[in-house]
Design brief:
Elements (H helix, E strand, L loop, with lengths): L2 H24 L4 H8 L3 H9 L6 H10 L16 E6 L6 H10 L4 E6 L4 H16 L3 E7 L7 H10 L2 E5 L12 E5 L3 E7 L5 H6 L2 E9 L3 H18 L4 E3 L3 H9 L6 H13 L23 H8 L3 E3 L6 E3 L24
Parallel strand pairs: 2-3, 3-4
Antiparallel strand pairs: 1-7, 2-5, 4-8, 5-6, 6-7, 9-10
Helix pairs in contact: 1-3, 2-3, 2-4, 5-6, 6-7
Length: about 350
């Protein structure tokens, strides 16, 4: 007997068994459940997955049917193995591959799900997001506001860039919306990044983050199922009372008034307070070089608006008044994305 052929067949049985085990796990089925659904015994399923038996074509057909698949799907491995781990900032960053996808995919869809977003992250991606949209892309962002790290300015800029923008909040404060997922897809393929990266400059470039990126072949049954499992939860979130769609300045103002989000100035002040506690410790700092530059920079006059109360005219136009501190930065929302010259306080 040809030893080479015997070895090849043994490798084939092992690979097929692992593939069936992977499909069963992806379908959230135990060996007992797969056996019951396919009409085979549990021992047969165990032996097939271990590569210890010769499955018949009828047996494979039953297994495929129980998994909601066709027999050829049992032999197709897809491209989910094409994955990359990023240990930011020591071995790259999320920004580079994300921008590559945004600037090359045509007629695609971008879904971003993050615990929070800040102007620094939005500014870095603005040019790439505009390129993506001009190529027929659709942008959807869900940003958490449970930890009060998402800023009003970031939301305002995203309203100018996104087709759909939502904030997510659990009113009990007992649970936190904390995913960090970026998905760029077209008709045939999805690029998925899952890790610890938020939509901030630090999250995309400089923070110590871990991220896995992979390609899913949407024409492969298992890969497509993985994609659907990944996106199904977010569809449910969108349709729940945890989510509010942001489509206007008034929506952002309401979040500010209710204390659910902060301004960039408030966020920096909070960060400064936290960093002051570690100023006299023995911990060091690892500098990151060759950083990308922001595609949108905040004009200097806006820093003036953050530091000084804004004078605005009363609705009657007859008097002047000082804006409440919580509404201090609202004048930014009256400016288009290109930004006008700063209004002169009256």
């Amino acid at each position: 007997m040809n030893t080479s052929n015997t070895n090849d067949y043994s490798v084939f049985k092992d690979a097929l068994g692992k593939r069936i085990q992977l499909l069963r796990t992806a379908a959230s089925l135990t060996q007992e459940a797969l056996a019951a659904n396919s009409g085979l015994t549990r021992t047969t399923i165990v032996d097939i997955e271990k590569g210890a038996t010769n499955p018949t074509l009828e047996g494979l057909a039953r297994i495929a049917s129980a998994l909601g698949l066709k027999v050829p799907d049992l032999f197709s491995s897809g491209v989910a193995h094409q994955s990359t781990y990023i240990m930011q900032p020591t071995s790259g960053n999320l920004y580079t591959p994300l921008v590559e996808q945004l600037t090359t995919v045509k007629n695609g869809e971008l879904n971003i799900h993050v615990a929070y977003a800040k102007s620094s992250g939005v500014d870095l991606l603005t040019a790439a997001l505009q390129t993506f949209r001009s190529a027929g892309g659709h942008l959807r962002v869900l940003a958490g506001i449970d930890q009060k790290n998402t800023t009003a300015e970031a939301l305002y800029k995203l309203t100018k860039l996104c087709d759909e923008l939502y904030v997510v909040h659990d009113s009990t404060f007992a649970q936190t919306y904390h995913p960090k997922i970026f998905i760029v897809r077209n008709a045939d393929q999805a690029w998925v990044a899952v890790g610890s990266n938020n939509l901030t400059r630090g999250g995309l470039c400089t923070n110590y983050e871990t991220c896995n990126t992979q390609f899913l072949n949407l024409n492969d049954t298992l890969d497509h199922r993985s994609y659907e499992n990944l996106t199904e939860a977010f569809t449910l979130y969108q349709e729940s009372n945890l989510v509010k769609r942001i489509s206007s300045v008034e929506d952002i103002q309401e979040l500010l008034r209710n204390g659910l989000i902060v301004t960039e100035q408030q966020s920096r002040q909070n960060s400064t307070k936290r960093s002051s506690f570690s100023a006299n410790t023995h911990f060091g700092h690892r500098a990151v070089s060759n950083l990308p530059t922001a595609s949108v920079k905040i004009p200097q006059h806006l820093f003036f608006l953050w530091k000084h109360p804004v004078m605005y005219r009363q609705p009657t136009g007859s008097k002047c008044a000082q804006a409440p501190a919580a509404l201090e930065t609202f004048s930014i929302f009256l400016l288009p994305l290109s930004f006008r010259a700063a209004p002169t306080p009256m």
